[in-house]
Design goal:
The chain is mainly β and 392 residues long. Helices cover 0% and strands 29% of the residues. The chain is built from no helices and 28 strands. Strands 5, 6, 10, 11, 13, 15, 17, 18, 20, 23 and 26 form an 11-stranded mixed β-sheet that branches. A 4-stranded parallel β-sheet has the order 7-12-14-16, with no helix packed on it. The protein has a 4-stranded parallel β-sheet with strand order 19-21-24-27, with no helix packed on it. A hairpin with a 2-residue loop joins strand 2 and strand 3.
Length: 392
């Protein structure tokens, strides 16, 4: 660790301590209030690393100042959500959002928690981009950000490789102000076949939040864009947390969501959220954004205890999320002359061979999946999925 110019070296055990990959300024340190410091570590290591600052007074990043942890997470092909490589094509790393697939290659998985983000962004595929770093800032009084805080993953520069996932930023302060920017974006895959990195995770705890700047955790560009990251905003103990999933207007892959405690959820900017159960205060789904089930076939249960707003061209996307072709209580018998359609609320259409799928399920309490069409998994179409929405 040095000053920002790299001239003055600070001494571990005298100026700072390094414990469990976290840095603490020690009493009597030559690092003064207001000093700019540079922290470096090896991003290719498997072990976690990051920046932890615990301040008794203020944390301030002035206009023109920067906390730069771009690409300081896991290196290529490292991390729980690392991108994959197949046939010379790579996918993006995952973190808050899943990594974008490369051409024919699935993206990396999600990792970490929404409300306490501490994980590094996973790297993209072999020879791809690096993930973003991780920082936890605890200010005793004021946090003012008029400059830039960046935990972005880096883009892939090698042909057809995947981008790195965004990292983590966790801020706690009584008062939060400023007009700067905070980002944990995924890095771009190498166009056009490499997948984009998933967005990272940002959590901000502030009793008074007057920040007027930009907070973003979107997926990176690629063959398939990375999934949106997660943004968690919490005020004092009497307020409900706000969870925002926003891919900034670009359709990408999905974001798996599991949140501890009560919260309001906003899905926007063409984000896609996947889950099996959601218990929410207020639910807002903006245009061209969607909730989907975690698997196929798997139902989604959503309980909203206050209000639900679902804008036009948004909502629950369950097409083909039911039984596969040839499966289900309403799938018709196989007939080599021609296959019938699957049945559910209505009977399936008759095929050339004279068979059709029978109706099934309950009218007042529908909860079953649509049955697949006749012809087996290689020929029949899949049925629709199942969602339960309760607004009280």
């Amino acid at each position: 660790m040095t000053d920002i110019s790299g001239v003055t070296n600070y001494t571990n055990g005298i100026d700072y301590s390094l414990t469990n990959a976290q840095i603490y300024r020690l009493p009597g340190s030559t690092i003064l209030d207001g000093d700019f410091i540079s922290v470096s570590y090896q991003s290719a290591e498997i072990t976690g690393a990051g920046l932890l600052l615990t301040l008794s007074n203020n944390f301030e990043v002035e206009a023109g100042g920067k906390v730069d942890l771009v690409g300081k997470g896991y290196g290529p092909n490292l991390g729980i959500g690392a991108g994959k490589l197949f046939g010379g094509v790579g996918s993006g790393g995952g973190h808050g959002g899943s990594g974008g697939s490369g051409s024919g290659v699935p993206g990396g998985t999600t990792d970490g928690t929404v409300h306490q983000p501490t994980k590094l962004g996973s790297g993209g595929s072999t020879a791809g981009g690096s993930g973003g770093g991780a920082a936890k800032i605890q200010a005793g009084n004021l946090a003012r950000i008029d400059g830039i805080i960046s935990m972005n993953g880096t883009k892939a520069t090698n042909s057809q490789m995947g981008g790195g996932a965004g990292g983590s930023f966790w801020l706690t302060a009584p008062t939060f102000i400023g007009a700067g920017s905070i980002s944990a974006n995924g890095g771009s895959g190498e166009l056009y076949l490499g997948g984009g990195g998933g967005g990272g995770r940002i959590a901000i705890y502030a009793d008074t939040n007057l920040f007027a700047g930009d907070v973003v955790a979107r997926g990176g560009a690629g063959w398939n864009y990375g999934g949106a990251g997660t943004i968690y905003l919490k005020g004092d103990s009497n307020t409900v947390a706000q969870v925002i999933i926003d891919n900034r207007g670009v359709a990408g892959t999905n974001t798996f969501l599991s949140v501890v405690g009560s919260y309001d959820l906003t899905v926007q900017g063409k984000a896609i959220v996947v889950a099996s159960t959601l218990n929410i205060g207020n639910l807002t789904i903006r245009s061209n954004s969607w909730l989907m089930p975690l698997g196929t076939p798997q139902a989604l249960s959503v309980t909203v205890t206050r209000d639900a707003l679902i804008e036009p061209n948004s909502g629950f996307m369950f097409n083909t999320k039911g039984y596969a072709g040839g499966v289900g209580p309403g799938t018709p018998s196989f007939n080599s002359l021609g296959q019938g359609g699957g049945g559910h609320g209505g009977q399936g259409g008759t095929g050339w061979g004279g068979f059709f799928g029978a109706s099934s399920g309950s009218i007042p309490s529908p909860s079953t999946f649509g049955s697949g069409g006749g012809g087996g998994s290689t020929g029949g179409g899949a049925g629709g999925g199942a969602v339960s929405l309760t607004v009280s």
